[in-house]
Design brief:
- The chain is mainly α and 463 residues long.
- It has helices at residues 11-15, 20-41, 43-54, 58-86, 88-107, 112-140, 146-150, 152-170, 177-182, 185-196, 202-207, 211-222, 228-239, 256-271, 274-287, 293-317, 323-344, 351-369, 372-382, 389-418, 420-441, 450-462.
- Helix 2 runs antiparallel to helix 6 (112-140).
- The radius of gyration is 22 Å and the shape is globular.
């Protein structure tokens, strides 16, 4: 049964004001996404020189790349719980320090072992960012702007990836892989210093009994003292919370559907193949018949630019069209482009087909950028009850990283065993499954307060 009934925006949502202060808080927090994108993207260029300097085997190269995903999954699964215990703002400051420490260790690594440790630290920071940033932004943003402001996180990820490609290109001539990895210190420091001046989430403060401070912060981020309707909703939600959330509460009848939606979208975001393009774009482009490395790099940078631009489009549309329409339209575009890619790679490589492959990859990335890219992170910050929001979001993010690891490490094997065409058709089939999943289960949350969304899931269970 569909849970996607459209509800009109509430009076509380209409009164909540969008302020420059909220935008600043969201922008600083979203720097965690930029670090996420930069640190996952930069290794593709740095690894060429690291491999030579340390004489790495194939397994050791895979270790340098994959240990970040292990750290990210660990950080995501634990970061949500820590954000519930110690606060969103506090965890974002800790996340910044972890990113800085990881970048310094990587840049100064005298051996493979130190480099692996540095990459593991970076991965932990990425995991903390993915389990904390969307929640923090969602809890300080007004309902009518929450969609695009939480989507700043996804935009920052895409900018981070593109920045990594550019930095790799700049330092390619000198072979400066230490600079490539070490420059992550800069956004890490900006994130930490920026969050020192930002307030804690008013909802987290209220959850932990700091009611006077919570109301003061709410008035501050809304830019008005007239916050009684929203404050009343928060108090009413807290009256239903019972004891502080535990991991076992994720499986309670009233939250089971929300858990299924978050985990399901986490899996589908990865198994539809996006990170095979992010991690292996030059290889895919070269296999399509583009003869030179420079041509492949140029095409890859073009794909990264499309990712950024279409994420901006998604931010503009997400609070206008709503989450569901964008999700379904975007996944439809992914299905189409993956099917076309399968046909393209059945033909002879080179010539027109090579550039058709590049264009189709751009369509695929553009479709992802308006759907599963930003909307997954947005929904898992919206649909969970306050008392378990950190645990639940962290669980979904952890599952996302686990399947990122799985898909990234099976892609080359799939190419060898199935061939390029069947591999892309497999992803297309999984994209069809994700479309059906989204159509039947994903609700519309546009224009609704977090408290209204929580109440709707509770009432759905009661009915």
């Amino acid at each position: 049964m569909k849970t996607a009934a459209k509800l009109a925006p509430s009076p509380v949502a209409a009164q909540a004001q969008e302020t420059g202060f909220v935008f600043a808080a969201a922008a600083f927090a979203a720097l965690g996404g930029l670090l996420f994108g930069y640190d996952t993207g930069v290794i593709s260029g740095a690894l060429i020189f690291i491999r030579t300097q340390f004489g790495l085997s194939t397994f050791q190269q895979e270790l340098v790349v994959s240990v970040v995903l292990v750290g990210a999954a660990t950080g995501a699964l634990t970061g949500g719980r820590l954000a519930d215990l110690f606060g969103r703002r506090f965890m974002l400051i800790i996340t910044a320090l972890i990113f800085i420490a990881g970048a310094i260790v990587c840049a100064g690594a005298p051996s493979l072992n130190f480099l692996v440790i540095g990459r593991l630290i970076v991965g932990l920071g990425i995991g903390f960012a993915t389990s904390t940033v969307p929640i923090y932004i969602s809890e300080v943003s007004p309902p009518q702007a929450r969609g695009w402001q939480v989507s700043l996180f996804q935009l920052a990820i895409t900018i981070g990836i593109l920045t990594a490609y550019v930095v790799d290109y700049i330092y390619t001539q000198s072979g400066g892989w230490r600079w490539m990895l070490g420059l992550a210190v800069v956004p890490g420091a900006i994130l930490g210093l920026g969050m020192i001046g930002m307030p804690e989430s008013p909802r987290w403060l209220a959850e932990h009994g700091q009611y006077d401070l919570a109301r003061q912060v709410l008035a501050r981020v809304r830019g008005t003292d007239n916050v009684e309707p929203e404050w009343l909703e928060i108090q009413q939600t807290l009256a239903h919370r019972g004891e502080r959330g535990r991991f076992a509460d994720l499986f309670s009848p009233s939250t089971r559907t929300a858990l299924l939606i978050g985990v399901g979208l986490a899996i589908f975001q990865q198994v539809t193949g996006i990170n095979t393009v992010i991690y292996y774009a030059p290889l895919i482009v070269r296999s399509a018949g583009i003869p030179t490395a420079s041509g492949a790099i140029l095409a890859t940078a073009g794909i990264g630019l499309v990712n950024v631009l279409m994420t901006i489009v998604a931010m503009w549309l997400i609070d206008r069209m709503g989450r569901r329409p964008l999700l379904l339209i975007g996944i439809g575009g992914m299905i189409f482009s993956l099917a076309v890619l399968g046909f393209v790679f059945r033909g002879p490589a080179g010539g027109t087909l090579a550039w058709l492959a590049v264009i189709t990859l751009m369509v695929y990335v553009a479709s992802f950028a308006i759907s599963l890219g930003p909307i997954f992170w947005l929904l898992i910050a919206e649909i969970y009850p306050l008392r378990i929001r950190g645990i639940a979001e962290g669980t979904a993010a952890g599952v996302n990283w686990a399947f990122n690891f799985l898909v990234s490490f099976t892609f080359l094997t799939l190419l060898e065993s199935l061939g390029t065409s069947l591999t892309f058709w497999l992803y297309a089939t999984l994209a069809i499954a994700s479309w059906l999943f989204s159509y039947y289960l994903v609700p519309e949350t546009k224009g609704r307060t977090l408290e209204e969304i929580e109440q709707s899931f509770r009432q759905s269970h009661a009915a």
